[in-house]
Amino acid sequence: MKLLKHIGGLLLILVAVIVVRTFMHTPPPMADVTPVNIEIDADSAAKHLSESITYRTVSNQSEADKNDAAFLGFIRWVKDTYPAVNNELELVMLNQTMLYKWQGSDESLKPILITGHYDVVPVIPGSEDKWEHPPYEGKIVDGIVWGRGALDDKSGVVGILEATTFLIADGFKPARTIYLSFGHDEEVGGPEGAGAVTAYLKENNVQLAWSLDEGSFLFKGMFPGVDNLIAAINVAEKGSVTLDIVATAAGGHSSMPPKNNAVGVLAKAINKLEENPMPGGLQGLSAIMFDGISRYFDFPMRMLFANRWLFDGVIDSQLSNVTFANAMLRTTTAPTMLSGSVKTNVLPIEAIATVNFRVHPRDTPESVQAYVESIVADEQISVRTRGGRGASDVSSWEADGFDLIGRSLREVYGDVAVTPGLIILSWVSRHMFR
Question: Domains in the chain and their CATH numbers?
Answer without folding.
Answer: 42-214 (3.40.630.10), 235-389 (3.30.70.360)
